[in-house]
Amino acid sequence: MLLGHRLRQRFGLARFLGANDRGQEDFSAPTVHACRFEGSTKRLVTSDGTDATSEAVLFTTVEVKPGDALWLPGTTPGDLATRRRPLRITPCFDIRGALDHYEVYV
Known about the structure:
This protein has no helices and 8 strands. The radius of gyration is 14 Å and the shape is globular. By secondary structure, it is mostly beta strands. The chain has strands at about 10-15, 15-20, 25, 30-45, 50-60, 70, 90-95, 100-105. A 6-stranded antiparallel sheet has the order 6-1-4-5-8-7, with no helix packed on it. A two-stranded antiparallel ribbon has the order 2-3.
């Protein structure tokens, strides 16, 4: 990975498992992964096509999916008050065309 030596921070990730008929969401237990965190405000189009404002971007080798729950560096994984959702996930490829990392906008 081109950014491997720069992944010095940690973020929490809980996979979205599904929702019941009442709309209550179910997630896996949060796990902690390496990342590089950059705070920056940016307007973007989300994965569902709506406009949104991103406050930060995470660079990570872990695949993040649109429904997953995230906890930014410095927050406690599992705390519902600080849970975030990815606005856009961009896979980035190396010069040989292999998947290198993901950029996750939150």
